[in-house]
């Protein structure tokens, strides 16, 4: 076994054994910084992915007998109650608005034969939209 650099009579006053070999003085400081950066990146990646998922809300819409039915729910399946709903036409003009009930449901008469964008906003960043295509509206 080789002696540690920086031992008695060495010009390198302080050394430490790392996985990749001996590091002395400035080399050790650089190794610590590199490990700190790696840990910070790992924490950021795992820390930021959870909030992104928690702000997701799902919305689905379909037409039945001349009425548009909207369902809002969180990824765990719980309904999005009292969420704001906006219905926009293909030009982005607001046609109507309302709120989901306690079961996350909202329905309205078909306002016109056009592509409809249904936007759900459950506050605190929980927002999504659903495009109901003109050809899916029926006759």
How would you concisely characterize the structure shown here?
The protein is built from 1 helix and 9 strands. By secondary structure, it is an alpha+beta fold.
Topology:
Layout: E1 15-18, E2 21-24, H1 26-54, E3 58-64, E4 67-73, E5 84-88, E6 94-99, E7 105-109, E8 116-121, E9 127-132
Antiparallel strand pairs: 1-2, 3-4, 4-7, 5-6, 5-8, 8-9
Describe the structure.
- With 139 residues, the chain is of the alpha+beta class.
- It has 2 domains: 15-54; 58-136, Immunoglobulins (Immunoglobulin-like), CATH 2.60.40.
- Helices cover 21% and strands 36% of the residues.
- The chain has 1 helix and 9 strands, in the order E-E-H-E-E-E-E-E-E-E.
- It has one helix spanning 26-54, and strands spanning 15-18, 21-24, 58-64, 67-73, 84-88, 94-99, 105-109, 116-121, 127-132.
- Strands 6-5-8-9 form a 4-stranded antiparallel sheet, with no helix packed on it.
- Strand 3 (58-64) and strand 4 form a beta hairpin.
Spatial order of strands in the largest sheet: 6-5-8-9
Low-pLDDT ranges: 49-53
Which CATH class of the largest domain is shown?
Answer: Mainly Beta
Q: Average pLDDT across residues?
A: 80
**Tally of alpha and pi helices:** 1
CATH topology of the largest domain: Immunoglobulin-like
Keyword list:
4-stranded antiparallel beta sheet, 139 residues, alpha+beta, 3-stranded antiparallel beta sheet, 2 domains, 36% strand, Immunoglobulin-like
